[in-house]
Amino acid sequence: xxxxxxxxxxxxxxxxxxxxxxxxxxxxxxxxxxxxxxxxxxxxxxxxxxxxxxxxxxxxxxxxxxxxxxxxxxxxxxxxxxxxxxxxxxxxxxxxxxxxxxxxxxxxxxxxxxxxx
Length: 117
Description:
By secondary structure, the protein is an all-beta fold. Helix content is 0%, strand content 59%. The protein has one domain: Peptide methionine sulfoxide reductase (Metal Binding Protein, Guanine Nucleotide Exchange Factor, Chain A, Beta Complex).
């Protein structure tokens, strides 16, 4: 499984070991490997998520991804039904989608996706 980092737009700047990009028409998060557009900056719900590989963002909507197998997964916030999501351009795993949250206070995640930075 490849580790995926996202970048935004087309002009690249390296800051603190991460790749940040500015697009003058709006910020677009894209696959690091093939640059397929995945999400818009305006669709970020939270930047305080963590993945196995580091920081991750919760998005209201992502595009150009396909779902993997749905499974039960115990996460830091409890049990969730999730499916890994893969870039349609290159097949890299880019995050996961919350199908069901079993804890009441986690229901806001249902239908939302996490993209790993």
